[in-house]
Amino acid sequence: MTVARTGTSTGPGDRRRLQRLTLTSSITGAVVVAVDGSVLTVVQPVMQRELHASFTQVQWTSTGYLIAVASLLVFAGRLGDRFGHRRVFTAGALGFAVTSAGIGLAGSAGLVIGLRVLQGVFGALLQPATLGMLRAAYPPGRLAMPIALRTSAIGLAVAAGPLVGGALAVRLGWRSVFFLSVAPALAVGVLVLLVRTPEPERADDSRAGLGLPGACLFAVCLGSLVHALVGLPGTGWTASTTLTVLAATVAGAAFAACERRTASPLVPSAVLRSVPLVASLAVLVSASAALFGTLFLGTYLLQHVLGLDPFASALRMLPLAVVMVLGAPAAAPLQRRYGHRRTAVAGMALFVLGILLTSRLDGQSTPWASGPAFLVVGAGFCLVMVTATAVVVREAPLGAEGVSGGLQQTAMNIGPVLGVALVTMLMGAAAPGAGPGPVGGPAFTAAMGTALVVLAAVASLGALVATRLPGRTDGRGRRPM
């Protein structure tokens, strides 16, 4: 196997300038996607009214996008490994901008849904490339801080998105929120296209295929799984859910068989053989599932049991967002001093403690009880996400940086829907018929406590897996002898 060098020799000054440009591009691309997802929920009721859409149609503006993204992230990473992350990033950014503008101009619910699915395709191209470009620009020992800053920016975007989107929707209408991402996405796409940022060394696989059969089977598997899980909170487990899960299982088995036989697998065997990388992905799935399950239940508690309005509920959860934004950069020096393993395990322990504190909240809880609980949840998850993502990017095998980034993004998309689906089933089993309203308040609160203890157990499993992460490295990303 030969190695193709795609970068050019540069001096220290040029290298630092390209690193700053790459970091800015990566952060902007990730933030654009995060803002778009966070503002949608704010404008969906107004969109439904003005477009005369049904509830199902409005739900599909989210579901269609999520299915498209989750199904294509790994294949998008494979495209980046083959043709260059800069090119794939540019295509994703420009396409995301165009579809965002199209949604803002759409005149029917059907057109909005179609454009949201197409936007999901471009979002899938964009996201793995942001990590692939960082891997190319920074040496392994210096990846932690760029990834931490990217995580901090995403947290800020998710926290500020609903506030900015709500203000725009009130002043200018729901269409205005989709124009938020047009200018930055166009700007960063053109910038990366015109300025040659670094590309990683990659295996010379010009005669290798893209793993299209495996990509199709993987897309069917994940698309079916996401569709089934997204529908669980609203409809429960139905015959349709069973058929969809069965389709996902069959497609997954066929994908595994295809990958073993083909000469050009979608996921290279070197990725699957990397214990730290696979362990990091498992940690991300468990942590994101526990986080979003906790947020799902916490939101219902604040609004339906405590009777708070959405804004007051957001203020109660604000400590979680603040600590994620401010705490992410602190994860980098912790990794350098204590290693990825200790940092992730400590973060998971903190995360489990926060979930257990949340499980003790009830209808009489004050801000002095809920605030610290959400603060600890955010601090623990922040450490885990930054550390596990850094391991995925650093441990990605040569020529599989994009696939590894795609798997990381897939884990962060699958985990939340798993978490929400899990707590929905747990709540239905623990308190059937006990809604989260005033009448069902006590029963709901008791069932919520049980569900949160289960989520803490899920996070604890992630802590055990985190012990498989690498230990401390030197400044150049090597482990001490």
TrEMBL record:
**Record key words, sorted:** Antibiotic resistance, Membrane, Transmembrane, Transmembrane helix
> Recorded GO terms, molecular function?
transmembrane transporter activity
Query: Gene3D superfamilies per the record?
Result: MFS general substrate transporter like domains
Query: What GO terms fall under cellular component here?
Result: plasma membrane
Q: Does the keyword ATP-binding apply?
A: no
Instruction: Give the bilayer topology.
Output: Multi-pass membrane protein
Which parts of the sequence belong to the Major facilitator superfamily (MFS) profile domain? 22-474
Record's PROSITE patterns?
MFS
Q: Does the keyword Membrane apply?
A: yes
Its GO biological process annotations read: response to antibiotic
Where does this protein reside within or beyond the cell? Answer: Cell membrane
Q: Which InterPro entries match?
A: MFS, MFS_dom, MFS_trans_sf
Q: Where are the transmembrane segments?
A: 21-46, 58-76, 88-111, 117-138, 147-170, 176-196, 208-230, 236-257, 277-302, 314-332, 344-361, 373-393, 414-434, 446-469
Q: Which PANTHER family match?
A: EXPORT PROTEIN (PTHR42718:SF42), MAJOR FACILITATOR SUPERFAMILY MULTIDRUG TRANSPORTER MFSC (PTHR42718)
Name it: Major Facilitator Superfamily protein
- Biological source species: Streptomyces wuyuanensis
